[in-house]
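WARN no homologs supplied; continuing
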Amino acid sequence: MSVNETGGINPLIVAPAILAVLFTALLGCLVLGRRLGRRAAARGTDSGGLGAIDGAVFGLLGLLIAFSFSGAATRFDKRRAQIVEEANAIRTAYLRIDVLPPASQPALRESFRRYVQARVAIYKAIPDDAAVHQATEHATALQGEIWKQALSAGQTSPGGRPDPFVLSALNAMVEITTTRFMAAQTHPPSLIYVMLVALALVAAMLAGYGMAGSGARSNRLYPVAFALVLTATVYVILDLEYPRVGFIRLDAADQLLVDVHESMR
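OK structure emitted
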C-alpha cells in the first residue's frame, strides 16, 4: 500500500485491479441488461415506463460524477496552494534569522537547510511507507531543534528575550505542515464512491436493456465504449483526489520547496 501526502492509504496503488474489476462489471451489467431486454421483448412486455427511470438514474449518476470531480479538483488546487504557502513561510522565517545575533545565525541556517531537505524527502519517498515515516519524524525533530535554537538566540540578544518577529514566522512555518497533513487526509466518505460505482452499474444495466430494442445490439463497440468512458472517469476522479502516485501530480509545486532549499546555499 502507499501513503497520500504524509499518512493515508492511497488507493491508486491498487487502482489497476479496481478499475479492471469495474470495467468488467460494467460490461457484465450491459450484457445482463441486454439479455433481460431481449427476454422482455420476446414476451411482449411493455417497457415504456423505463424512460423516466433511465433519465432519473443517468441524471443522478451525472450529478454525482460532477460533484465528485468538482470536489477532487478543488482539493487538488487547495493542496497545491498550500505548498506555495509553506514555501513562502519557510522563506520568510529564514530571512528573519537576520535579526538574531550574528553568532547564532550559522547554526540556525544550517538547521533550516536540513529541515527543508527533510520536507522534500517526505514527498520524494512516496510510496515507501517506512521512508515517509522516517522523513516525517526527522522533519518534526528539526522543527523542535530550530525552535530551541531561536529561543536560545533570543536570550543572547541585547533584550535578553526571544524575538517575537522571528517566533511568529517560525510558528507559521510549523502550522502549515499541520494544515497540509490534514488537507491530505481530507477525502469524501467512502460511501460516496460506493454509491458512484453502484449507480454506474445500474446505469450500465439500464443502458444494456435499452440497447436490446435497438439496432445497436449487434455492435460490440457501444458497450465497450460505455464501460471504458465510465471507468476512465472514475480513475480521473481518484487521480485528482490522490495526486501523489497517478498521472496527475503535485511535482511541479513541490519544486518550490526544492528552489527554497537551493536559495539557502
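The mean pLDDT is 85.
OK
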